[in-house]
Structures
1.
Amino acid sequence: MKSPCIDLCAFNGSTGWCRGCGRSKPECRTWKKAQPQ
């Protein structure tokens, strides 16, 4: 599955969600470590 990242990493301080892709920091870290299937 392709990453939803659009290379606009800006995390909202109150919610913790990325304004670019809508993921949380832990979700972003998991995607970086994921292997292609």
Note: DSSP finds one helix and no strands in the chain.
2.
Amino acid sequence: MEDNFSEDAIVYGDSWGLVHRGVLEDREIERMKALRDKVFGKNGVAVTTMKPIGRVEIDGEVYEARLDNGYLDVRTPVTVVGIDFGYLLVKELKTEAK
């Protein structure tokens, strides 16, 4: 069975879950889209331990965030890969060794 959701019908993370319009009110969908547009793909840093939920700082603002799974220490670099129910979905930003 193929789902035919439009961009207006969902707010999505990179590879984590879908939030269908029937679950949230339109204004919440729009709020999450605006948040996604503001921070998606940006880099930041964990300001609390992520186990897997915590807080991150992106462009000088602090947001509630979560990892798909696992644990990150304070000051670990992260990148935003999506939004899910008001949380930023983040993953560790891997940097190449020089």
Note: The chain is about 15% helix and 35% strand.
3.
Amino acid sequence: MTIQEQAQQLELLADQVPTGIALATKSDLEDLQAQVLGLLGETSTATAIQGSIQLAAQQIDEVAAALENVRLQIRDAAQHHLQG
């Protein structure tokens, strides 16, 4: 495999990093949070659930950032191959 082919393969791999899954999950959690508030109103139970959802959302942000870092590192490796 040539260096050019390796770079192309790395670009394809970078596109496969599942960054969208984390963002979609966060969106689903935000929808869930709104539904919980709608069902329970401003109660202590709703507040506790919302706190858990917010914590999960923060962790998803961290995962999304880590996945984006993986994607960028693979892309950087592809660029490095192209520059020779």
Note: The chain has a mean pLDDT of 94.
4.
Amino acid sequence: MTPSSAAPRTVIENCAIATVDAQDTEYASGHVVIAGNRIESVGRGKAPEGLTDVARRIDATGHLATPGLINTHHHFYQWITRGLATDHNLFNWLVALYPTWARIDEEMVYAAAQGSLAMMARGGVTTAMDHHYVYPHGSGDLSGAIIGAARDMGVRFTLARGSMDRSEKDGGLPPDFAVETTEGALAATEETVRKHHDTAFDAMTQIAVAPCSPFSVSTELLRQGAELARRLGVRMHTHGSETVEEEKFCHELFGTGPTDYFESTGWLGEDVWMAHCVHMNDSDIAAFARTKTGVAHCPSSNARLAAGIARVPDMLRAGVPVGLGVDGTASNESGELHTELRNALLINRLGAHREAALNARQALRLGTFGGAQVLGRADQTGSLEPGKLADLVLWKLDTLAHASIADPVTALVFGAAAPVTASFVNGRQIVENGRLLTADEDAIARSTRQEAQRLARTATQG
């Protein structure tokens, strides 16, 4: 489907443009024309003459236009447990927080999803995802609450319907009442896909199959989850190789490292992406490259939990698809993806490749086209090209924070978090001058605080 000639047009002019297309095409001063929910044209100078049905013209002098940011890993519910267990590694952090997380309910999850989505959207995210895997007994329709929050916010969204069936009694970390049976998890996941997954080019909601992690799910859930996803034609997501403790766990329980274990259960492939992938050896990276398995790189969370530095430069050189992730805000309290552009670049320069690890344009690509690859939507979004969906951001770079930096991409990535003057999703503007147009930020702040307090009381009483 292409935009109709009668579709209302928005014309954006006089901005720098980083298209993030295959050639990394950039314009020092150019235009973007939106027709309906598609990008109609992108190029140097003014928009073409004689355009009809122009509903709006934007003079974007002093701005950089980029594709909208794409978040590839998150746990929305954690918005209401921020600031806890701040000096723990992953396993100790999970042990400390699972008893609280196991008390969430539908109202809490909706409020937390609103908070997570609002923070990302006002910072330039146009496509978000949530890996939700905590489904306590009797907690309500949690998947529906999350999907509803994304729909209300106007953000393109993938719900990675997670699951856990390995609880404390089976040697796992979550409490017994916070996990599902293997059969129950698979049935609920299939129902979520059939009810909510949209296969359209401009789909606003898609579903992935997403058992939580090797140490919280059974081998059978992983194996049958992969079979379910491929039967239904949806993508697959999980955590992988996040910490040295996880690697030790896999060797002790399965007799192999995480990557080989995942391959044995059907969890490598171009329809799969994994979060973190910090502790990967050369053989692991080669396996991901060979199978085109994607990675969600979460630099702030990896630092917060002292997990280590993922080998992103080596992954990229090998041909592994890599996107960026906020991760849950109990391990990245800011909840902003645009700061991850900078953190990915800086943290990777602490690794073996030092100053040659990543540059500004590679960091921007991770947060845009790389994310689209990882979510399986690179044909629709992730770059500014005619025919693609109109998901784009105007970053204001002419203020004190950035005006003396000549190169706009360098300003965006190396500089302070840039203000978002406008953010469009599917051709609809959802942010203006740093404020959401689709939700009341102050009301969300109040509701998330109230639900965080209610969760804390419930966990104490529980």
Note: DSSP finds 14 helices and 17 strands in the chain.
